[in-house]
Design goal:
With about 475 residues, this protein is of the alpha/beta class. It has two domains: about 350 residues, ANL, N-terminal domain (Rossmann fold, 3-Layer(aba) Sandwich), CATH 3.40.50.12780; about 100 residues, GMP Synthetase, Chain A, domain 3, CATH 3.30.300. About 30% of the residues lie in helices and about 20% in strands. Helix 8 packs parallel to helix 9. It is globular and about 70 Å long. The N and C termini lie far apart (about 65 Å). It binds zinc ion. The site of zinc ion has 7 residues, from loops.
Length: about 475
């Protein structure tokens, strides 16, 4: 049993500036001891709370014949059925707008957010004030771990809309006591204005998507501004895309800005989404298990996989009172390890980041292909621009994998041809037979948000032949 759930935190607490930890005890304790004394008790309280307040879970667990009191350990916990995005969406359709998992009364909602809804109906989030405070606390703690301090100024270069990324970052920045510079993104001309403002205000920390940071750098160079010299970013942290965990992209961002590139982010549903978050040593995202409990499970058996093995991400809130997610099937693919990190934190890590989404992965000629593998190949070769596309077509019955990329501006024809061959060879050594098509610099569409780089045209072919 624990004294109090949900926990409440002292909102005035700030560690000493030179302390590398926000909470040394929790962050460095023996992993087994953490499981037994912190995670399991918090989990039991979260399960009891959900069973009592959420018709969604009560029905689901009753149907599975499970009661919260049956869960005495993390291995018992594997009996709890997964929750999928689709289930949440369907439940919200039946019980609009927040679904039968709200757990709080409507007048206790402090903030309304949602998914972008690019695929299907958006999901609505109604978040309580207490949860907002705990999100702020969690994010501040993780930001502290990658080196952010109260004297930093944080440029937030992402949409301020229903998108939880920007707001989650802002909450953490405020709790940590740093200066927020919530610039936003997505308005025509805003990137050019950002470049001017950044030179004046000299923010020290950047937040956005990896794609946007590279786009901003490209624009800056076009305006005669060197993002490494004329800007002052020492930390750039990211979510929303896997790029910051792709080694060659990480290196490119660090070289471009002369700052460290921090990968973070699980999913909007799991906010505090930063509980997948790197420390300043950038050895892969730590799973901050005492805030959100993360698991990697086998897609086939649904069982938790051993460390050093690949699996699909599943997450569980341990301190959410509004719309808690319990064994939420996030669908990202990663590998985890419990090997020590130079920072001294004893949380498991995802040393290769999240390198695929179960639904982003595509199969070409029977091979599993992750877009991040292609991204890594492109960024490992000098001379390529930052944007690329993956096009999958079907000629007769044969799948064709086409990679479109650009040389950096000013590259002559002979060098462009060399780049094309180099990339084809690099992909071939990864077992990918691809056709590389070089495009003129600047022709592939840029994005200020999450890039959509995979174009699968095989359905078109199937429809044509059916028709
Ligand atoms: Zn670490």
């Amino acid at each position: 049993m624990i004294e109090k759930w949900p926990p409440s935190y002292d909102a005035t607490y700030i560690p000493k500036n030179d302390d590398p930890f926000w909470n040394r005890k929790l962050e460095t304790m023996d992993p087994l001891e953490r499981e037994e004394t912190i995670i399991v008790p918090k989990l039991q309280a979260q399960l009891r709370y959900a069973y009592r307040n959420s018709p969604f879970y009560r029905n689901k667990w009753d149907a599975a014949g499970i009661r919260p009191e049956d869960i005495q350990s993390l291995s018992d916990f594997e009996k709890i059925p997964f929750v999928t995005k689709n289930e949440i969406r369907e439940d919200q359709l039946k019980h609009p707008p927040f679904g039968s998992n709200l757990c709080i009364s409507k007048d206790e909602i402090a903030s309304v957010h949602g998914t972008s809804g690019t695929t299907g109906k958006p999901t609505a989030f109604g978040i309580s004030q207490g949860d907002m405070e705990r999100i702020a606390e969690a994010h501040a703690r993780i930001m502290w771990g990658f080196g952010m301090r109260p004297d930093d100024t944080v440029f937030i270069g992402s949409f301020f809309s229903l998108y939880m990324g920007s707001w989650g970052a802002l909450l953490g920045v405020r709790r940590l006591g740093a200066a927020a510079f919530p610039f936003g993104a997505g308005v025509p001309g805003q990137t050019e204005r950002a470049i001017q403002w950044i030179q004046e205000i000299k923010p020290t920390v950047f937040y956005g998507t990896p794609s946007y940071s590279l786009y901003l750098a490209e624009k800056a160079r076009g305006m005669g501004v060197d993002p490494g010299k004329d800007f002052n970013f020492r930390i750039l942290f990211f979510s929303g895309e896997p790029g910051a965990g792709v080694p060659a992209t990480k290196k490119r961002i660090e070289e471009t800005y002369d700052g460290i590139c921090i990968d973070s982010g699980s999913t909007a549903e799991m906010t505090p989404w930063m509980t997948d978050g790197e420390c300043e040593h950038r050895k892969g995202m730590h799973l901050w298990q005492d805030i959100v409990y993360g698991e990697l499970v086998s897609a086939e058996t649904g069982r938790r996989v051993p460390y050093e093995t690949e699996g699909v991400t599943v997450y569980t809130h341990l301190e959410r009172t509004s719309q808690p997610m319990i064994r939420f099937w996030a669908g990202d693919i990663s590998m985890w390890t419990l090997e020590s990190c130079p920072c001294g934190r004893t949380y498991p890590r995802l040393p290769r980041g999240v390198y695929g989404r179960a639904d982003d992965m595509f199969v070409v000629r029977g091979e599993n292909v992750y877009p991040s593998a292609i991204e890594n190949a492109i960024r490992s070769i000098d001379g390529f621009g930052d944007e690329f596309r993956i096009v999958i077509t079907r000629e007769k019955t044969m799948d064709e994998l086409i990679v479109q990329a650009e040389p950096i501006p000013g590259t002559d024809n002979a060098s462009t041809l060399k780049l094309e061959k180099k990339l084809e060879t690099a992909l071939k050594t990864k077992g990918l037979r691809t056709l590389v098509q070089m495009q003129r610099p600047g022709t592939l569409e840029r994005t200020e948000f999450k890039a959509r780089r995979i174009i699968d045209q095989r359905d078109l072919y199937d429809e044509m032949t059916k028709g």
